[in-house]
Amino acid sequence: MKSVENFKIILLGSQAVGKTSLLEKYVKNTFTIKYKATIGVDFLSKCIDLDNTKYSLQIWDTAGQEAFQSLSTHFYRGSDACVIVFDITSSKTFDSVSNWIDEIQFHIGYDRKIPMLVIGNKLDLNEKRVVNSQKAKQWCEEHGIMYYECSAMTGQNIEEAFINLVKAIDVFN
Ligand code: GDP
Ligand code: MG
């Protein structure tokens, strides 16, 4: 008989980096060019099968409360993993990644560790890139964080990124 694992994953990062777009592409396989201030719900769910285990992922998105300290404890509570998104064409969104990590650690408690994934999004705009791929990767490695570059527009690497995050949750638990 198959076992089912329920995981809560939170999506964070500066405004307009593509959090909602990544979530919608991953869960619904849709993409629209307009800015999506809110998806109107706290989270979207997706089920995946991995190594004979069924995973039910509850992926939480922010509804435009990307300013630091504006998200309530409710958002962070019970999270099993987190994804911090930045935009490879905006250096300030990469600079904010470490602030988001501090914020997450503050809310979940400094004694608790959860797997973290950083996504450099908008890989389809590679010719406008300002964040160096190797530097971002190295920074993440030094902090024990997984790193992927994805495109919510094309869908590139999104599945791989989430699969590896889910595998990491299993290792952490
Ligand atoms: P959020 O504020 O982080 O949730 O960002 P959104 O998902 O609302 O996206 C902000 C803007 O960036 C929208 O205009 C999206 O269409 C656009 N966008 C998001 N992801 C990508 C991507 O991978 N490539 C490109 N070219 N645009 C993207
Ligand atoms: Mg959004």
TrEMBL record:
InterPro entries: P-loop_NTPase, Small_GTP-bd, Small_GTPase
Pfam families: Ras
GO cellular component, one term: endocytic vesicle
Keywords: GTP-binding, Lipoprotein, Nucleotide-binding, Prenylation, Protein transport, Transport
Similarity comment: family membership: Belongs to the small GTPase superfamily. Rab family.
One annotated GO biological process: regulation of immune system process
Official protein name in the record: Ras-related protein Rab-7b
PROSITE patterns per record: ARF, RAB, RAS, RHO
